[in-house]
Amino acid sequence: MSVSTAASAWRDSLQGSWSRLRGLLGRSEENASAVPVRDWVNTGSGKPTAVAGFDMALVWVVVCLLALGLVMVYSASVALPDNPKFAKYSATYFLNRQAMFIGVSFVAALVTLQIPIGVWEKWAPWLFAASLAMLIVVLVPFIGKGVNGARRWVPLGIMNFQPSELAKLAMAMYAASYMVRKMDVKENFFKAVWPMAVALMVIGVLLLAEPDMGAFMVIAAVALAILFLGGVNGRMFFLSVAVLVGAFVLMIVFSEFRRQRIFAYLDPWNPEYAQGKAYQLTHSLIAFGRGELFGQGLGSSIEKLHYLPEAHTDFLLAVIGEELGFVAVVGVIVAFFWLTRRIFVIGRQAIALDRVFAGLMSQGIGIWFGGQSFINMGVNLGVLPTKGLTLPLLSYGGSGILMNLVALAIVLRVDQENRQLMRGGRA
């Protein structure tokens, strides 16, 4: 064989090998883009890269929201001891309590992160039953604690636990577990939709007895969303939505105080409502108006000085708007939008990996966070009628912070198991 012939054969062999290598790299890039997960962290110091166990961006967004909430709870509550109702409390009482709630909830979240999703799937029906039992217990005289005419809390020593917060997580788990078990009959109304409708009706009756219509709205949204995402027949889904909306309308029509809230929402500046049912709404709108673009400055709110009731709980966003301005309010809205979207992405990845329970549960938690934050923001801004719902991760409250962080720990566990599967391991 001549030298030129050998060189030509060697060149052809190299070109073929290079073509095959490019093909393999191309397929790898396609697979990577199909499941967009950043799974490696570059240390930037010449050391080998390390595997990221879960979504650190989600963790940092949650930490930032908790930190902002801690600061704003202190700012919104620092003047409360001037009120005779809170005369026995120190100026830092709510700050210290909120810091304690965050600490306890953080420990609970770390413990929750160690529990495999398969365990939650197995125990989902029992957790739902436990939440129903707690909703019954809170209605028992001398056990449930009443505040402002509502009986929603069970005293547990260091904190008052609100069973409706547990019910939100329990419904997300139970509905996801239910859809997995009913996947083969999801087109049949009486086998797929009717049992869930009965469960939702029972939990609705218990919540309305407290009363806590806001929590019922969030739980109903979680249940219906999981049914829809689980593939229930479209006609059955829209029929269920129509029945639920009709039920809410009837509740408003046959309840005097709910009707008055709707009228006050429609015309808050009417003298008949401004000092009554629309009192909180009008002062919330005044707070946003005073805040303008960059706010009056941290600690400079006037509305928190006994003008705006529940400023450290339901109307914390109004204090943020007054002290930190429009820019901070937009930042909070964007943070919750990103958080909700990221939870949905994690759920979609789980479903793509054939982990239907984990995916539907995560998306149900996303509906919970997105729906509750939307309602709270809408109430503060006058877009929705006044409801007693806190802003997740920000508002003062032990059971709210506890269940928020536990739910997010479960989502992080789903993400962690997703990443293990995509690396070829086991969840």
From TrEMBL:
Transmembrane segments: 57-78, 99-117, 123-143, 189-209, 215-232, 237-255, 315-339, 351-371, 391-412
Leading EC class: transferase
Locations listed in the record: Cell inner membrane; Cell membrane
Pfam families, alphabetized: FTSW_RODA_SPOVE
Enzyme Commission number(s) from the entry: 2.4.99.28
InterPro entries named in the record: FtsW (IPR013437), FtsW/RodA (IPR001182)
Pathway: Cell wall biogenesis; peptidoglycan biosynthesis
Reaction equations catalysed: [GlcNAc-(1->4)-Mur2Ac(oyl-L-Ala-gamma-D-Glu-L-Lys-D-Ala-D-Ala)](n)-di-trans,octa-cis-undecaprenyl diphosphate + beta-D-GlcNAc-(1->4)-Mur2Ac(oyl-L-Ala-gamma-D-Glu-L-Lys-D-Ala-D-Ala)-di-trans,octa-cis-undecaprenyl diphosphate = [GlcNAc-(1->4)-Mur2Ac(oyl-L-Ala-gamma-D-Glu-L-Lys-D-Ala-D-Ala)](n+1)-di-trans,octa-cis-undecaprenyl diphosphate + di-trans,octa-cis-undecaprenyl diphosphate + H(+)
Highest rank taxon of the organism: Bacteria
Keywords: Cell cycle, Cell division, Cell inner membrane, Cell membrane, Cell shape, Cell wall biogenesis/degradation, Glycosyltransferase, Membrane, Peptidoglycan synthesis, Transferase, Transmembrane, Transmembrane helix
Membrane topology: Multi-pass membrane protein
Function: Peptidoglycan polymerase that is essential for cell division.
Similarity comment text for this entry: Belongs to the SEDS family. FtsW subfamily.
PANTHER family: CELL CYCLE PROTEIN, PEPTIDOGLYCAN GLYCOSYLTRANSFERASE FTSW-RELATED
Name of the protein described by the UniProt record: Probable peptidoglycan glycosyltransferase FtsW
Gene that this polypeptide is encoded by: ftsW
